[in-house]
Amino acid sequence: QVQLVESGGGSVQAGGSLRLSCAASSSTYVMGWFRQAPGREREFVATINWSSSSTAYADSVKGRFTISRDNDKNTVYLQMNSLNPEDTAIYYCAAGSHYRGRYYSPDYWGQGTQVTGSS
Fold it and tell me: Cα–Cα distance between 70 and 1 in angstroms, integer?
């Protein structure tokens, strides 16, 4: 069992930036982020493999968000730039064993952190 703890959420004006962090209780091969907006299904945001040689992004965030990881700290990050109201959601950290790009299906989930982009 892997425990995931997110941090860094908050409220930011349109065009602003936030960085999310997720600390895992043990090392995992693939880590990523999903989000769920009110009244909508949870959706894929980004994923990264162990060596950081492979990353994948949802079309809606490509060019604005960057995923990275620090394996020494068992931590994955999501740098979010040019935030807008459509990015408002609960962001969930996820971890798993198999890299499948945007078809990522994690084994473990964090509790989520709220991100709000205000106009």
Answer: 20
Q: Which amino acid is at 70?
A: D
Nearest to 101 by CA among 62, 67, 53, 55: 55
Q: Using an 8 Å Cβ cutoff, are 116 and 72 in contact? A: no
User: Tens-digit pLDDT profile for the chain (119 aa)?
Assistant: 899 999 999 999 999 999 999 999 999 999 999 999 999 999 999 999 999 999 999 999 999 999 999 999 999 999 999 999 999 999 999 999 999 999 999 999 999 999 999 88
Integer Cα distance of 84 and 79 in angstroms:
14
Helices first, then strands: H and E counts in the chain: 0, 11
Q: Within 10 A of 43 (CB to CB), how many other CB atoms are there?
A: 12
Strands annotated E in 37-109:
43-48, 55-57, 65-70, 75-80, 89-96, 108-109
**In 3D, which of 69, 2, 86, 71 has the Cα closest to residue 32?**
69
